[in-house]
Design a protein that fits this description.
This protein has 195 residues and is α/β, with parallel strands linked by helices. The chain is built from 8 helices and 6 strands.
Length: 195
Amino acid sequence: METVDTTERLKKLRELMKERKLEVYTKEASVIRESGLIVVEFICGFTGSAGTAVVTHEKAALATDGRYFNQASKQLDANWELLKQGLEDVPTWQEWTADQSEGEKTVGVDPTVITALDARTLDEKIKKKGGAGLIGEKANLVDAVWGDKRPPRPREKVKTLPLEFAGKKIEEKIEDLRKELDKKKSAGLIICMQA
């Protein structure tokens, strides 16, 4: 596992943050948010499938869960603090973000990778700590740092797993889902994979 020097990347990101009057910027990644995943990898060097990067003008932190503690500790350079989520006395990325916002600081977030409920909850935590609040930053600041060197989005076709791995035919799964929706008196189910 290679450690990437993120000094220049963070410097450019912080310049963009200053231009937009942001003191804190967060970027979340997970397996279902493939584009967010590679963006977090670019800014901090962490290649795991779940993590959130939080950057201030002075500090940077990556929050991840126990599956990735060893990997992250090897991949993050000295610019980054590792927030080991789930351990006692370690703040969540939301708590760490709110702590950094003290003194009327503004926190920017990519609105495409946070739910409305999570955004409201984070905004409340920020204001409770004395921060100015949370704003959705329409421009992906990490992409702006990356520029034209960003690799293209994956274009692999979706694969259907053989029945021996899937357990049921697609039609059976859909029928089971419809029965569950009827039981719960739900009109439908939205499944979204952001790429």
